[in-house]
Amino acid sequence: MTKFVSLDTFDVRFPTSRSLAGSDAMNPTPDYALAYAVVRTNADDGREGHGFAFTIGRGNDVELAAIRALEPFIVGFDVEETLADLGGFARGLVWDSPLRWLGPEKGVMHMAIGAVVNALWDLRAKRAGKPLWRLLVDLSPEELTGLIDFRYLSDALTADEAVELLAKGANGREERTIELETKGLPAYTTSAGWLGYDDDQLISLSSEAALSGFSLVKLKVGANQEDDLRRCGLVRSAIGAGVGLALDANQVWDVNVSVDRINALREFELSWVEEPTNPDDILGLARIKRGIAPIRVASGEHVPNRVVFKQLLQHRSIDIMQIDACRVAGVNENVANLLLAAKFGVPVYPHAGGVGLCELVQHLAMFDYISLGGLSSRKNFDPLIEWIDHLHDHFVEPATIVSGRYRVPELPGASTQMRAESIDEFSFPVGKAWIGELADPEAGTGDLNRVGGRHPGGLAW
Ligand SMILES: [Mg+2]
User: Fold this and answer.
1) Residue 316 lies in a domain
2) Do both 13 and 57 map to the same domain?
3) What is the distance between the alpha carbons of residues 135 and 124, in angstroms, rounded to a whole number?
């Protein structure tokens, strides 16, 4: 019998606070980090499952402890049986009552379950010899529906409806597959507009993004109001009228403040505003949406599970759903989220602002485009996925952009596997990348993120 023999974890962190790449109004000095998990078997075929949860530095060790708590659910179990029923496996973790108590279905433990479930999808795709997106589009509607935990969903989406959506959504899939493989999937970039970038950087990176083919640029806002006005004007001039401009406030405003601050920026022809307020404030987001229309509201990267997505859709609180590959309980729960969005006719523009997120979530975006793109509700909008331009080289198959479009990943797996040298170099706190950083207490802007202590506070809004 082929068995799982280990679940190993690695604390991988990148000193991104040095360059402020990734900075926003809520997270001024993030050190992008992965609570990284590797599942191994006794098959002696060289195939491993790689998955991770994304964090921004301090606390990555807490996430790793949660992943290690899942070891008894994997090690010693039959590989074939487990991989053949990843729906049952994921439900077994989510429904384990002591672990569920730590959420339920949200936060550190839920993200840990996501890391492990995604690692097993990586392994399953490698064993099938297919990239994850292709493995998913090749599953039947019944197999896909079998992955989903319908508990708490049936007032919005039943298993029968899901099968019907997938059957209808497949209309035209051959044409969409050819288009995807030849042209790629359209992307927008966040890399020009980090909050910590000065005006010169903002202007040069924004115009570069427009020239290189991105159809939309996203700008971080939500600190100082005068800065928001000036920076929006600079970016709008740099990209011209033909390129979209979206804003991301990363949750810093109250509901009424959101409406006022966004309306003060209307002249810049905004495509959407992302996370204006707390991501759990379902009715608050609905109120913001009414208050800023026709500017759209986007949210989802911090939505913890399918139940909150269901309510956001039922209350018409969001115009755009932004699934995150690592926030929820893995591929399975994101298949549910994609089907919910399809049912309510809301576009999904996945979140990818973090290390490894572009690599993994591109598979879900491609599955969504091919397997649900035939629905009439999907014909009103084009696919779109976030892109950030750093830290890709640490992966065995880095996500790749050509002329503003994601190229289709080709290697078997979920693109989640990091290069072994990168794991060594960026292991915290012993990797080569960290030895110099931590020896100098004055180095970098994010040292408090790394070693702890009282933070001087985020940026005022
Ligand atoms: Mg965001």
Assistant:
1) yes
2) yes
3) 9
Distance 351 CA to ligand 1 centre (A): 7
pLDDT digits over 27-68, tens only? Answer: 888 999 999 999 999 999 999 999 999 999 999 999 999 999
Amino acid identity, position 120? L
The closest of 145, 127, 113 to 330, measured between CA atoms, is: 113
Whether 220 sits among the annotated catalytic residues: the reply is yes
Do both 291 and 360 map to the same domain? yes
Whole-angstrom distance, CA of residue 252 vs CA of residue 237: 26
Q: Which of 50, 130, 351, 363 is catalytic?
A: 351
**Does 412 fall in a domain?**
no
For β-strands 185-193 and 385-387, DSSP reports them as: parallel
Alpha carbons 143 and 188: distance in angstroms, whole number: 32
- pTM metric for this prediction: 0.96
Residue showing tokens 């159809």: 215
- The three state secondary structure string of 204-234 is HHHHHHHHCCCCEEEEECCCCHHHHHHHHHH
117 and 240 within one domain: no
Domain of residue 364: give its range.
Answer: 159-406
Distance 159 CA to ligand 1 centre (A): 31
CATH code, 124? 3.30.390.10
pLDDT digits (tens, 9 = 90+) for 93-104: 999 999 999 999
Q: Which residues surround ligand 1, an ion (CB under 5 A)?
A: 248, 274
Report the domain count for the chain: 2
Percentage of residues in the chain having pLDDT higher than 90 = 89
Strand (E) or helix (H) holding 406: strand 405-406
Q: Which two tokens stand for residue 339?
A: 């089907």
Distance 324 CA to ligand 1 centre (A): 10
Residue 461 forms part of a structural domain: no
Strands 185-193 and 216-220: parallel
Measure the CA–CA gap between 69 and 105, rounded to whole angstroms. 15
